[in-house]
Known about the structure:
This protein is an alpha/beta fold. Helix 11 (about 330-340) links the parallel strand 3 (about 310-315) and strand 4. It is about 50% helix and about 5% strand. The protein has a domain at about 275-420: 3-Layer(aba) Sandwich (Rossmann fold), CATH 3.40.50. The N and C termini lie far apart (about 125 Å).
Amino acid sequence: MAKRPTPPTADAPPRAPRKAGRPTSAKPPRPRAVKAKPAPDAAPPPPPPQAEAHAAEAFAFPGADQRQMLETLSMNLAKAAMTAQSAIAEAALSQADRPAALSPDPFNVGPAINSVMTSLASRPDKLFAAQADLFNRYMDLWATTTRRAAGDETPAAHDAKLAKDKRFRDPAWTENPAFDVMRQSYLVTADWMNGLVSSVEDVDPLVKRRAEFFTKLLTDAFSPSNFLASNPVALKALAESNGESLVRGMQNFAADMERGAGKLKISQADYGKFVVGENVATAPGQVVWRDELFELIQFDAATDKQRAIPLLIFPPWINKFYILDLQPENSMIRWLSAQGFTVFVCSWVNPDKDKAGFGFDDYLEKGIYRAVEKALEQSQAEHINTVGYCIGGTLMGAALAHMAAKGDKRVTANTFFAAQHDFAEAGDLLLFTDEHWLNEIEQQMDAAGGVLPGAAMAETFNALRANDLIWSFFVSNYLMGKDPP
Length: 485
């Protein structure tokens, strides 16, 4: 039988309260062993003074010279941006009073591209093969890039082809791996796109040629060399000049916009360096006839004895008479005079609105026939030899056929320079002679008072060789900030 608890007496000390949750019979917990903390490692030795100096230099704030360079660069970039914005604003104001574009697609490119894409869509097997070809080309590119990163400098199979491209000849394109990959990626894609369009077989040949021509214009325009951020040569010039190259480039841009009266008219030469009679057209000659259509210039033989039959040259309407007398070293006029020829050159008038009614027959009757007549009178000869250059040769060919039909034998021999007669094989110029474009030309001429602006003709010929006549000057003049040659 259990004992009853003895009640505490009044004199007994109070008991300590029990801990909650612990029975009275529980044993007290064993004390846990406290792990000794490892002794701290010995403090690292202080860095040598030289290392501290290098670290301080690495994290030091820019010095006075560096701050000045950054400030100059920032100021020049801002100045370049303001110059470009001002030029564009002036161009917008000058264009405000002009009529809107005559046609959103003057070259009729849209239907040509649509025909090519429709043909490709109807041949999924061909399209799949083209996609596989592009994939393989990129795999080859990445394989070559990987090998070069590993130190293998063996040239790729297409390197010889790339070396011929003048846009990427500067070593900066290959020294930096990022720009090298960018360059090769662009060339792979551009070559693939142009080849894909050329592979189409079931569309009209002229339609296909138009699509090929404008696809090449597009791929040429998107070359990484044409953009400041992706052109290492331009970026190097920007860094070395603290932004002054871009300032000069935007000043060139503004000057060309002003010269084009609101349209970009890229300078291809420093026109102030060429003065007629001083360093251009220096062969001694004299004007012996002038009328409303042309001047006839005579260059005497530079020999004691002169040839009996003179020579009459008809240059293109869009060129000056000195196209064959640019410099003394390569002047054909001087060379012919040194061979004993009396040379006549037809210098065509630059037509304005009062010549709007002149046609091909007027240039034949009042140009070719009258020039032959006056040259024979001036030289007191009975026969003459002629040269027809470009459209002047086309006109001369028509005149010779007309003379032959009439029995006119005054011209004994003729030479053609780059003159076309069979326009069935006119090359890329065919793209500018279809009905759609001729209608556009007529509208442009009507808007200009009956004549075709010279800028429109220049733009057409520039487009035939866009890389040489547009983009090379765009990069040099604007991105590099160089003056035209």
